[in-house]
Each structure stands twice: as structure tokens, then as C-alpha cells.
Design a protein that fits this description.
The chain is an alpha+beta fold. The protein has helices at about 30-45, 70-85, 105-120, 140, 165-185, 210-220, 245-270, 295-305, 370-380, 440-450, 475-525, 530-555, 560-595, 600-630; strands spanning about 55-60, 90-95, 95-100, 125-135, 150, 155-165, 200, 200-205, 225-235, 235-245, 275-280, 285-290, 305-315, 325-330, 330-335, 340-345, 345-355, 360-365, 385-405, 405-425, 430-435, 460-465, 525. Helix 13 runs antiparallel to helix 14 (about 600-630). The longest helix is centred in the last third of the chain and has 51 residues, at about 475-525.
């Protein structure tokens, strides 16, 4: 028997191969067997949650993060569903939310509107979302085991159709144009009449004489770009009317949708959703598909939330009333200038942390270049003057209205504005500063929303449903059947062609799939159809490794005894297996680095599968062969 250095075997002792000089051929230490067994047991535990399919459920979560939910809310929602004839198979409170488990997807869709109506009129507002409630046993959850997330093309997810409140967006833009026009008229010393000039997409500015109106037209000629002006003589006075051009209107709408799309993508990234779909639908709607999402109520709360900041100076006694507005702060009225210094749109980074002196929550903000310059210019000349911070939040609301005699849930947005801070400017501010006056939930949400980017226009959800597989249930079923059939055929072929060695390869191949699923579940990766292609390729590579080993053993049997042939076959095939798998692994890494979406899903599955297949094909198969043949006196070998 050739042993040690004289054997010339390449790869001897790699990955725990036994040393022939110190142990009988093809035997391993008990510790090595225990190591392989432990890996298999751990893989079985962390892949087991994928056997438990989640239940369709409704999730009820308070809009205010400081509000707690309890059994009373569970009973209220459950009673409403039962009265409507919907079966409720379970109800529980977990992680600050109420989960109601339902029998099927149809009950889930009908039940959402019923629960929304049942919660109407309560003092607190709640988000009611479609979700999937886990059925994984508690002991597995306590160990940190969780099922693998499936993409939209396999198991679907949450589909949201969002309506952009374009009317409010245009109204706010017209108000901004009104303030711009007022500033230009004041600068040109042109006297105007009235304060509210906005009428839809029209700006109607009245004057006391035609001469003053003509001077105003000259002063505003370049200020209101994108508007067409005309002079009108009406009973209410001499009107200078600006009408928004259709091209400019479309440009504003496109800009609002584009900014909302980018902000939504950033928010979804903050939520950690894999491979989301965010795209425009028509002029005023956005489609959002969230595959495999776990906390859909939290996703809805963050996605549907519109929060912004305005920084303004507190007015002085000689400021004109037309340029100011009054807001309450800590029980007293505060007069502010209408003109903003900067807004949340100019924030490039925001993090929630705590004031080191008071331990109160705060938001640390960094402005962009324009915002930092504007803040510095405004504060350096106003040291000793007070500056106020306004927190603006658009909250989604719903109400039941009668349409053609039928009750319909109408959704709308409600704006809430409040002063959160009024402080004296001690020195000139720059690009970085802190905001206090918020509770922990508001600070966390504000930091996330500012970091993701402000929405140009508020939105509200007009349709929500769970989506099935995009390829259709029939195609998915056929795909599953083909994978199972191919896997079984491979197992049968290996068993018939390689006899007992084929049985060892089949066991190792099954273990490979189990480990692959376990690793994917632990990593939180999302499995898509391209990912399944990566699994199929991994199965082929795992079989290929075993075929290389067994073919090498057959060749070695011509010149060696059975035990020596087994050892030489494993040792000499390792280099080829490593070469093939490592080069493929590099390709998977490149695909992951430069790819996106389905390509990344394929790369993740392939790279994980390469690692697991090498472990099972070399160490797993070797351990099983050693158990069957190691240390025995063999005169012949059937392979």
C-alpha cells in the first residue's frame, strides 16, 4: 500500500482526509464523523421551518408607535369578522401588532375592509395590512430558525397601488408661486389687493388700476416661468391672471412622480425588502410589489407616511402681517415668517440618536450644499433671534361615504403641522445640526423619511392585495414537478449505475439540498425562479463531483486493491473538483457584484450551492463510504 509522501497522491489530507500512515485505510476519527453529523443536524433544524406554510392573516398596527394594543382590540376585530361570516382561526398580539389568522386568501381580502370599518371612530388610528402569519413552531423560532423568503414569481407578496394626491401637490406649488409673486411685487414696490390669489392652476392677482397692473406684469414677466399671462377687467378689479401651461403642468407631474418613485425605492431599501417592484402607472399612480415581506403593516405605515420639516425665523414686530402666520407652541401663539430658510428636501443624511446631556431622542441632520449655505446666510445675520422648526405630516385617513346608495370606503390625506422647536440662534449654523422635541418613535421615523428623501406629493393606498406567483400557479406546479422528477431520476441513476457508492452519493445529494435551503434561510435570501435555476445547477455540480470521484476509483481499481483504489480515487479527484467549483464560484461573485434583481438571486443561490455541494460531495460522501468500506478486507469492489 502506498502511503505518506511516497504515494504521490495530490490533495491528500485536504478537507480532513485520513492519514494512511496512522490509521487503517479509508477510516476517519470519531470526531470527524461527529462534525459531519453535527453539520447535518444543524442544517436539518434551520431548513425545517420551510416545511411549515404561513397562514393568511390581517395585521393591525397603531399608527402612533407609542400606543399599545391588547386583547380588547383583538376581540373587536374578531367580532366584526365573525359577524360578517368570515372564519377566524386564531388571534394574537405580538411585537406591538394584532394578528388575526384567517382560513384563506379570499377571507383575507374581504376581512381587511371589514376590520377598517370596525375600527372607524376610535380615538387612535390603526394600519390594517395583509400579511402572512408564521406557523413555525415556537422552539424553532427560539433557536433563530426561520423560513426562506420567496419572491413574487414563486409565492407572491404584497401588492400596493398608491394614488398620488396631485391636486394637493399642485395646490402647494401654486401657493409657493403665489409667495414668489408676492415677494417680487414687494421688491418692485407694486401695490396689490388681497392675499389668496390661487384658483386651481390659475393665479389671479387683483389691482386697483390698469396702470399698476401693467407695472406688475413687467415685474412678474420673468418670475413666473411656465405660465401664460393675460389682463382681465372684472367687477372685482383689474386682474392679472397667470395660467399654468399644459407642458409645464406635465413637467411638474412627472417630476413629482419621479421624486416619489425614488423616495419609495429608498424607503423600501430601508425596510430590507428583497427585489421590490416600484413603477409608475399612468399619470398619478404608482405600483409597489413587496415580495416575501414579513411586517406589511410597518411597511404600509412607513411607505404611506409623508413627513417634512420647515425652518423659519420668528417674526419681528415690524414684519408685515401678509408675510407672517401664527402657530401655537406650548400653549402660546408664535408669529412666524412664511418664508422658509430650508426644508427637509435639502437634507442629505439624518440619523436618530440621543442628546448626551439630556438623554432625550434627537435627529442629527446634514444639509446639502444649497441648504447649508442658505442656513448659514440666514443665521449669521440673525444671532440672538429665534428660529422655529415646523414638523409637517400627511396622515392617510379613510371614511365611509355613500356612492349611488352603496357604502364605499373613501381614502384621503389629512395634514398635521406643529411647531416642535423654537430656539434662540446662538451662532451661525452650517451644514450639521440637531433637532429635539420629538418622542422616540417620531425621531426614528423622521430620520428614516428624511434619509430616504422627501415625497414631492402625498400618496395614499387605494388598493392592496396579496399577489400570487407572476408565472401562474399551473406553471409553478409544473416547474416543481420537473425539478422533483429530475432529482428522482438522478437518484435512481446513481443508485443503479454506482450501486452502494450511488446510495452514498444520493444521501449526500439530499443533504446538499437540505444544507443549501438552511443557509439560504439563515442569510434571509429571497428565492426566485432564477434562484431555482441556481439550485438545479448546484445539483448537477454535486452529482458531477461524485461522478468524478467514482470514475477515478474505477480507474484506480485496474492497478490497485479496493481499499487503495478508494483512497486514491478520492485523493486524486479533489484537485479537479476544486478547480471546477472555484472557477464557477468566481463567476457567481462577479454576477452578484454587477448584476441586480433576478441575476443577483441566481448568483446567491449558485455561490451558496457551490460551498454546500463541495462539503457534501467530498466530506459527506467520503464519510459514508468510509462507514461502508473502511477498515474491511475487500477482495472486489462493485462500482
Amino acid at each position: 500500500m502506498q502511503t505518506g509522501r511516497g504515494s504521490g497522491l495530490i490533495g491528500e489530507n485536504i478537507l480532513g482526509l485520513p492519514k494512511a500512515a496512522t490509521r487503517a485505510p479509508n477510516t476517519s476519527s470519531p470526531a470527524r464523523y461527529l462534525f459531519v453529523l453535527a453539520v447535518m443536524i444543524i442544517g436539518a433544524i434551520f431548513s425545517a421551518p420551510n416545511l411549515f406554510q404561513p397562514d393568511p392573516a390581517l395585521q393591525i398596527k397603531p399608527e402612533d408607535t407609542t400606543v399599545t394594543v391588547g386583547p380588547a382590540l383583538v376581540e373587536r376585530a374578531r367580532s366584526a369578522l365573525i359577524e360578517a361570516g368570515i372564519e377566524v382561526i386564531g388571534g394574537e398580539v405580538a411585537d406591538g401588532s394584532v394578528f388575526l389568522r384567517l382560513a384563506d386568501d379570499d377571507s383575507q381580502l374581504r376581512g381587511r375592509e371589514i376590520v377598517v370599518r370596525a375600527l372607524e371612530g376610535l380615538e387612535e388610528h390603526y394600519v390594517v395590512a395583509l400579511t402572512r402569519a408564521s406557523t413555525t413552531p415556537r422552539w424553532l423560532q427560539d433557536l433563530g430558525a426561520k423560513p426562506m423568503s420567496l419572491g413574487l414569481d414563486l409565492s407572491g407578496g404584497v401588492h400596493l397601488l398608491l394614488q398620488v394626491d396631485m391636486q394637493k401637490f399642485l395646490r402647494d406649488r401654486m401657493v409657493s408661486m403665489q409667495e414668489t409673486a408676492r415677494d417680487a411685487l414687494v421688491k418692485a414696490r407694486v401695490r396689490y389687493v388681497g392675499r389668496d390669489w390661487v384658483d386651481g392652476t390659475l393665479l389671479r392677482i387683483p389691482f386697483r388700476s390698469a396702470e399698476v397692473r401693467d407695472r406688475a406684469a413687467e415685474a412678474l414677466a420673468e418670475t413666473l416661468d411656465g405660465f401664460t399671462s393675460e389682463s382681465l377687467d372684472e367687477a372685482e378689479g383689474y386682474i392679472l391672471q397667470f395660467t399654468m401651461d399644459e407642458d409645464y403642468l406635465r413637467e411638474l407631474e412627472d417630476a413629482a412622480i419621479s421624486q416619489n418613485l425614488q423616495s419609495l425605492r429608498n424607503r423600501v431599501n430601508e425596510l430590507g425588502v428583497s427585489e421590490p417592484l416600484v413603477q409608475r402607472l399612468g399619470r398619478e399612480r404608482i405600483v409597489l410589489d413587496l415580495p416575501g415581506i414579513q411586517d406589511s403593516a410597518e411597511a404600509k405605515r412607513i411607505i404611506n407616511k409623508f413627513a417634512n420639516l420647515e425652518f423659519r425665523l420668528v417674526a419681528l414686530g415690524n414684519d408685515r402681517s401678509a408675510l407672517t402666520e401664527t402657530m401655537p407652541y406650548q400653549g402660546a401663539p408664535i408669529v412666524l415668517l412664511r418664508q422658509n430658510i430650508v426644508t427637509g428636501d435639502q437634507v442629505i443624511n439624518a440619523t436618530q440618536n440621543y442628546d448626551p446631556e439630556t438623554s432625550q431622542p434627537q435627529v442629527s441632520i446634514r444639509l446639502n450644499n444649497d441648504g447649508g449655505i442658505a442656513m448659514n446666510n440666514a443665521t449669521k445675520d440673525n444671532v440672538g433671534r429665534s428660529m422655529a422648526i415646523i414638523f409637517i405630516e400627511q396622515k392617510p385617513r379613510s371614511r365611509v361615504v355613500l356612492v349611488d346608495g352603496e357604502e364605499t370606503v373613501e381614502r384621503y390625506t389629512e395634514e398635521e403641522r406643529r411647531l416642535i422647536s423654537v430656539a434662540t440662534i446662538q451662532s451661525a449654523l452650517g451644514f450639521n445640526f440637531r433637532i429635539t422635541g420629538l418622542d422616540i418613535g417620531e425621531a426614528r421615523d423622521l430620520a428614516l423619511l428624511l434619509r430616504a428623501g422627501a415625497l414631492a406629493a402625498p400618496m395614499y393606498i387605494v388598493e392592496e392585495r396579496t399577489v400570487g406567483a407572476s408565472l401562474g400557479e399551473e406553471n409553478i406546479e409544473r416547474g416543481q414537478q420537473s425539478v422533483v422528477a429530475g432529482f428522482i431520476l438522478v437518484l435512481i441513476f446513481m443508485l443503479v449505475y454506482y450501486k452502494w457508492f450511488g446510495l452514498a452519493a444520493d444521501i449526500a445529494l439530499t443533504a446538499n439540498l437540505m444544507l443549501l435551503i438552511a443557509v439560504m434561510s439563515v442569510l434571509g435570501a429571497t428565492l426566485t425562479l432564477p434562484g431555482i435555476a441556481g439550485i438545479v445547477l448546484t445539483v448537477g455540480m454535486a452529482v458531477d463531483a461524485n461522478v468524478l470521484i467514482f470514475s477515478r476509483i474505477r480507474e484506480e481499481l485496474k492497478n490497485r486493491g479496493p481499499q487503495q483504489a478508494i483512497q486514491a480515487g478520492f485523493d486524486r479527484a479533489i484537485l479537479t473538483i476544486l478547480d471546477a467549483n472555484i472557477t464557477t464560484f468566481f463567476v457567481a461573485i462577479i454576477l452578484f457584484s454587477i448584476g441586480s434583481g433576478p441575476v443577483k438571486g441566481f448568483a446567491v443561490t449558485l455561490s451558496v450551492g457551490i460551498v454546500t455541494s463541495m462539503f457534501t460531495a467530498i466530506m459527506g460522501t467520503r464519510a459514508l463510504v468510509n462507514l461502508m468500506y473502511g477498515g474491511r478486507s475487500l477482495k472486489a469492489l462493485r462500482i
